[in-house]
Amino acid sequence: MYVAVKGGEAAIRNAHRLLADRRRGDPAVPALHPSQIVEQLALGVDRVMAEGALYDRDLAGLALMQARGDMIEAIFLVRAYRTTLPRFGYSLPVDTGAMQIERRISATFKDLPGGQVLGPTFDYTHRLLEPELAEGGEPPAPERREVAAEASPRVTDLLGHDGLIEPDGNGDGEVTDITRTPMEFPLPRDGRLQALARGDEGFLLALAYSTQRGYARSHPFVGEIRIGEVEIELDVPELPFPAPLGRVRLTECQMVNQFKGSAKAPPQFTRGYGLVFGQSERKAMAMALCDRALRAGEFGEDIVAPAQDEEFVISHSDNVQATGFVEHLKLPHYVDFQAELDLVRRMRAEQQEATDIKEAAE
Amino acid sequence: MNAQMVALEGGFPDPVFDAQATFRAVMNAMAELGTRQPVHATATPPAPLSPTAGALALTLCDQDTCIWLEASLTSEAVIAWLRYQTGATIVDNPAQAQFAFVADASSMPRLDAFAEGSQDYPDRSTTLVLIVDALDSGEPLLLEGPGIERRSSLAPTALPGDFRSQWRDNGVRFPRGVDLVFAARHEIACLPRTTRILEPAEA
Amino acid sequence: MNAPTGSIASYNFAYLDEQTKRMIRRAILKAIAIPGYQVPFASREMPMPYGWGTGGVQVTAAIIGPHDVLKVIDQGADDTTNAVSIRAFFQKVANVAVTTRTDEATIIQTRHRIPEQPLKAGQTLVYQVPIPEPLRFLEPRETETRKMHALEEYGLMHVKLYEDIATHGRIATTYAYPVKVEGRYVMDPSPTPKFDNPKMHMSPALQLFGAGREKRIYALPPFTRVESLDFDDHPFTVQTFDKPCALCGAEGVYLDEVILDDRGGHMFVCSDTDHCESRQGDGHRGQQEGTFR
Questions:
Q1: A354 in contact with C at a CB cutoff of 8 Å?
Q2: CB contact at 8 A, C211 and C204
Q3: Residues A115, A38: one domain?
Q4: Is residue A168 part of a domain?
Q5: Which of A12, B7, C82, C232 is the most exposed place for a label (fewest CB within 10 A)?
Q6: Residue of A nearest to C195 (CA)
Q7: How far is C106 from chain A (nearest CA, A)?
Q8: How confident is the model at residue A304 (pLDDT cuts 50, 70, 90)?
Q9: Which residues, in sequence order, are CB contacts of B116 under 8 Å at separation 6+?
């Protein structure tokens, strides 16, 4: 009877103490340090940064540890911290064309300037468990290549030179900020992309998958995926050049989709775009597919599938919102339940009475 | 002192609590129709922006808001103070302003020149701050509407001549429309758009 | 940071930064000026989950000052875990006085109930709202419901209530029962039982509603007309209880059913714990006085 429990404060305190104990686990096993998470569970850390919308590997590692490995809880911790941070300004758009590339692949061309670079990928690993990881030991040092003398222009830029793909805007104009202004549908594309970039990986993955299975098919090709570091710069009025603030690792996916054209306009490929903090091809690709699906209105396509429905996708993509509202059902609702209980009892009694009267009359 | 020097001075001595107290005064004045709410916070903006109006600006305006100023307030000193203290953008078009400050009611545009919001978003409308000498020595206005059980009255000084008819038109546009804050010495009162001003015959 | 004391040095007074407070304060003023209209606001992430009162917490944080006395209730009770948690939050970040006494509070944050004791002028009731849009379960799209409010097109709501009557012989909505404000906006009263709807009408207190996840704030100024939707042949009625509170003997209040055993034994007690305790303090007794709590 938690209704009647007095001393909720003590109960909460004790619950949190127990949580701390369970988080620590068996004291015979050495405790983790967040730095181990940052270094050795780096893709988990990347996901927390991406969906937490805060680029700070140490904080994301700490959040993962505090959350006992619960991704969404860790993302929530990072978001709740992020919202308290003062805002100094808006950085310049990053130039992913100038990225220091660690991985770069294109599915649309066999070879291209800058080459295909596999980088640290799970692709082509055989998914066999490796018991030797549990035994420790250091892996051999990676092969190193010379810094490529050749530039690695974006595939979409190469296609763009010939007008084969739609242009991508010039990056001018006011940028929407979904964290500062309440969302109003329909959203501009930049607002939508912001929401997708912090959207839940699993949700976007499922939606992207649905487009491949015929729910708003868009004939996608991976023009390019690139992963690496880019420079963040800020325009400071007092300085003659943008001030460099540091580097962040990003994953960018440029999806090249079915062409559009008309009697007047020659056919062109269309774009879907994904950009994510850290290394997450799955998220970047899913985001790009969702972005393209959500542009249906722009291209005059019929809106028939869930992935094309902006209000549906954007309103439900944020896992911090989703988990909060789903989980709030465990809060007490007994006052409303009492109201329903009372109504059901009354309706049942009335029905019984009606049946009794009818039977008595027969 | 030049305008730049003036701009650096006269903010709230205690920004967090002065803003909170001033906001509560505006909130109560907006909610409890016809009541006069004291404002104790001490902002000292350059004249003719009054200390009470200055406190309202510090409380409600920032880089996310646009302010329109009536002609008598468009001095370099007032503009510099508002820009420095709040970060707000000063606009020329009253229809673009979230907040409008008026010191001389005789030179203000009609109420329908300000943003009235849209039928979908009636909240996107201007809040006008009228600087007045007093709330009890002008022509008495008998008020009715949400916020007061029956009726109440206010007598702000220096209203525009045809204020009653302008206010009636403002009410006709509901849910669109502007909201008014009268900023007197150390006190304020509000007329939200839902307020009806009774004709003397109805009293 | 403008922290008034060293103990909360890393966060501002009442947690929110001043820019966020201004944004919320502007929304509150417009909400008061347009009673029942949902003002969009740039809701922030809070250190508690969405759906657990982030809207109410943001509203309270934007209005609260050092002289306020705060009461927090959930299901009418001060001692339910989420109420305890939110009260502790404000004690920590705003260092304000708290109370369980309805008449001592200047701000009451609530989830799912309005206190039994009539509120007074000068008090502010802050509701935590999960789904602010009364039309949401009839039309899931914000783009559509916004139009309906703009055009005052509420036929769909009446159709829904009438379908209830056709199916169940009565309006089967028992909580979050829609109201019309000052004859204009249809408003969701938050999931309070409809028992509490009449308390909203012409209340001397200011009522503010915060929906954090859905990013909306709305308000009822004091002395605002709030009418529950109904039909001439099916007028609005509130729940009644057959027995008084088993602990304090109160009648005409909202009761919780408490299950005593697995053989159908139960009793009914006040959902408003402060009201019940005050009555017991004044010597009122119910039939099962002393067996519980």
A1: no
A2: no
A3: no
A4: yes
A5: C232
A6: A339
A7: 23
A8: very high
A9: B122, B125, B126, B170, B173, B176, B177, B178
Number of independent structural domains in chain A = 2
- CA nearest to C35, candidates C227, C212, C204, C224: C224
Does residue A168 share a domain with residue A261? yes
Residues A75 and A102 placed together within one structural domain of the fold: no
Q: How many CB pairs under 8 A join B and C?
A: 120
* CATH numbers and ranges of domains, chain B: 3-193 (3.40.50.11310)
User: Tokens 């939606």 belong to which residue?
Assistant: A207
**Nearest by CB to A3, which of C112, C174, C256?**
C256
Domain boundary among A28, A60, A82: A82
Which element (helix H / strand E) includes B128? strand B127-131
Q: Is there a single domain that holds both residue A62 and residue A109? A: no
Average pLDDT over residues B32-56: 95
Domain assignment present for residue A247? The answer is yes
What is the C-alpha radius of gyration for chain C, rounded to an integer number of angstroms? 20
- Domain containing A17: what range? 9-82
* Closest residue on chain A to C272 (Cα): A335
Which are the contacts of C181, defined by CB distance < 8 A and separation ≥ 6?
C35, C36, C187, C220, C224, C225, C226
Sign of the torsion formed by the C-alpha atoms of B155, B159, B165 and B168: negative
Query: B167: alpha, beta or left, given left = phi > 0 and alpha = psi -120 to 50?
Result: alpha
Pairing of strands C39-40, B127-131: unpaired
User: Is A64 in the same domain as A111?
Assistant: no
Closest Cα in chain A to C145 = A185
- Residue A73 CA to residue A320 CA, distance in Å, equals 8
Cβ contact A281:A225 at 8 Å = yes
Q: Please tell me whether the interface predicted TM-score (ipTM) of this complex is above 0.90.
A: yes
Which subunits have 3 or more CB–CB pairs within 8 Å of chain A? Answer: C
User: pLDDT at residue B187 above 90?
Assistant: yes
Same domain, A105 and A164: yes
Whole-angstrom Cα distance, residue C270 to residue C124?
Answer: 23
Residue A231 and residue A175 share a domain: yes
CB-nearest to C84 from A8, A315, A323 is A8
A174/A307 same-domain check: yes
What's the pLDDT tens digit per position in B75-125? Answer: 999 999 999 999 999 999 999 999 999 999 999 999 999 999 999 999 999
